[in-house]
Specification:
The structure holds 2 protein chains of 2 kinds. By secondary structure, chain A is of the alpha/beta class. Chain A contains 5 helices and 5 strands, in the order βαβαβαβαβα. Chain A has one domain: Rossmann fold (3-Layer(aba) Sandwich). Chain A has a 5-stranded parallel beta sheet, with helices on both faces. In chain A, α2 runs parallel beside α3. The N and C termini of chain A lie far apart (36 Å). In chain B, a hairpin with a 3-residue loop joins β6 and β7. Chain B starts with a helix and ends in a 5-residue tail after the last strand. Classes of the chains: A alpha/beta, B alpha+beta.
């Protein structure tokens, strides 16, 4: 299977630490940060394929972070994680281009499966863009 | 602009009326004398004028209505384009300003005679390099825009619809339970995987579920069902025991900006977006409703594949 890079954004240090540890044990390249602002800063320097994003965070909340992320990296897929099921924020999240909306506590294997699907989607998307770019250059030349 | 056929009827109407006037005047001349004919002509003329006036009025109102509709659509489009283009303009203006400045500088150097001077040469090269860099920056911006436009196209993956629907049902359930609304599930276990765009489908299912709980208000049921449809279609049904939709509204519910919610409570875009998404996925969405009993929306998705082929 292709390797991919995952970024996890959550303000609860205990949760963040545990999930990073568990994903690393599954040989997934994962980085954890504790706020939306930190995540956006990191995106300036590093590239990630899939982001797992907590919706409720102090400062910049998940939906705001999602919007900024999609502006910066439109192809990167974002899975929103929530401790508190809110239909309103779920609808907003999907509207602003989140791949999925998962409730805490998420079943670990299920979460990994969603990350895998999100990565598959990103790969399909990239392949499609490559294809159209080749077509475009063919038309030009 | 009035329709051509309407203009045509207007012209032909004039002919018919003048013919009628002549046809009425000739026998009247023999029976009633000139005064009677004059009266008749006057009445006919008045009728002709008033008809013409009315027809013109109708055409004008029609035209005004069309142009108002057009204006509304146009202004919405303009608002969206305005927002987008101010962003693009801002992004592209900065590199353009730098390019302009460098061009000025190159011109300035070229005006002087000693262009062979190594110092001048290196300045020229530096300017050219900077211009090329800014052009790249602009290119990057336009590429990003193209990527964004492409993002609207569905991305097809093999999707477990039962799983997807259950995820959304769970999301709605907690709020539903607090209003004493029961979520009833009935999933077809043998449902094949469907080749579709999962985030788009999630958006539609969540929207329908949210509408269903809104229609119930409190104390009721929302049923969510997956079934095999005709021609290998996979159907997702979301039904509620809510207020129902009046017959006269049924053909309007998918129109953009149609809403029965109080102002500020809904944009009236939810169902029109759902409709747009499902058509983009090659499917369709249907509705059955009865006032006081509830509504049932069905998403018909094409392209089921056998389980295990995924």
């Amino acid at each position: 299977m292709d390797t991919f890079k995952v970024l996890i954004v959550d303000d609860e240090p205990d949760f963040l630490e545990t999930i990073v540890k568990r994903l690393k044990r599954r040989k997934i390249d994962v980085t954890g940060v504790e706020s939306g602002i930190r995540a956006l800063e990191l995106l300036e320097q590093e590239h990630f394929d899939v982001v797992i994003l907590d919706v409720r965070m102090p400062g910049m909340d998940g939906i705001e972070t999602l919007k900024e992320m999609k502006k910066k990296r439109p192809l990167m897929e974002v899975i929103i994680l929530t401790g508190h099921a809110s239909v309103e924020s779920g609808m907003q999240g999907m509207q602003f281009g989140a791949f999925d909306y998962v409730m805490k506590p998420a079943e670990f294997d299920e979460l990994i499966e969603k990350v895998r699907q999100a990565f598959e989607r990103k790969s399909i998307h990239e392949a499609k863009i490559k294809e159209t770019k080749i077509k475009e250059t063919r038309i030009v030349t | 602009m009035p329709e051509q056929s309407e203009v045509f009827t207007l012209i032909s109407q004039r002919y018919v009326i003048s013919l009628l006037i002549v046809a009425a005047a000739v026998p009247a001349w023999f029976t009633g004398g000139p005064l009677f004919v004059a009266g008749l002509l006057l009445i006919a003329w008045a009728a002709f004028l008033s008809t013409r006036h009315l027809v013109r009025q109708i055409l004008r109102t029609n035209e005004q209505k069309c142009s108002l509709d057009q204006q509304l659509i146009q202004s919405q489009k303009l608002a969206a384009i305005g927002e987008l283009s101010s962003g693009i303009a801002h992004e592209i203006n900065n590199p353009l300003a730098i390019i302009g400045q460098e061009v000025e500088w190159v011109r300035h150097i070229l005006k002087e005679e000693k262009v062979e001077d190594p110092q001048q040469m290196s300045e020229l090269k530096e300017s050219l390099f900077e211009i090329a860099r800014q052009v790249d920056r602009c290119r990057e911006i336009t590429h990003k825009l193209l990527d964004f436009a492409r993002k609207q196209e569905p991305l097809i993956q093999s999707v477990d619809v039962n799983r997807l629907v259950e995820d959304m049902a769970r999301l709605v359930e907690r709020e539903a339970i607090s209003k004493n609304i029961k979520i009833v599930r009935s999933y077809n276990k043998d449902l094949p995987f469907v080749l579709t765009d999962s985030p788009l489908l999630r958006q539609v299912v969540l929207n329908l579920l949210n509408n269903a709980t809104y229609a119930v208000g409190k104390d009721g049921e929302v049923t969510i069902e997956t079934q095999m449809g005709e021609n290998g279609c996979v159907n997702v049904l979301v039904a509620d025991t809510g207020c129902g939709i009046p017959k006269e509204d049924l053909n309007k519910i998918f129109d953009p900006f149609f809403t029965t919610k109080p102002p500020g409570k809904g944009t009236g875009l939810g169902l029109s977006i759902c409709h747009g998404i499902i058509s983009r996925l090659g499917g369709r969405i249907s509705v059955v409703s009865e006032v006081g009993k509830g509504s049932a929306f069905t998403i018909h998705l094409p392209g089921g594949e056998r389980k295990g082929e995924a």
